[in-house]
Design brief:
Length: about 100
């Protein structure tokens, strides 16, 4: 490990590397993969997403959603996945 430029508490230095970074490196070559694992994606928010967000707020849908994902969203994702992959039977949307 490279020595830090400024003094750092030994407890900080001994923290294990983030496993998610390693995972991201492993899957970075997958074509058409959008990473939503860290912060924000590297592109502007599409207009349709902005409009849907504003509509949701205006319709008081700005609270925590279903813990398994909104049923309509799960159904849409399931349809998308079934069109592309065999044996997809259910979808679970998790929070990060």
């Amino acid at each position: 490990m490279t020595e830090p430029l400024l003094p750092v508490n030994q407890a900080v230095i001994s923290i294990a590397r983030d496993k998610l970074l390693g995972f991201q490196r492993q899957v970075s070559g997958i074509e058409d993969l959008t990473f939503l694992t860290f912060g924000e994606p590297g592109f502007d928010t599409p207009a349709v997403v902005k409009e849907a967000t504003i509509a949701a707020i205006n319709n008081s849908r700005s609270h925590y959603g279903n813990s398994q994902g909104e049923p309509g969203v799960r159904k849409a994702i399931l349809g998308y996945m079934k069109d592309r992959y065999d044996n997809v039977i259910q979808v679970l949307i998790t929070l990060s």
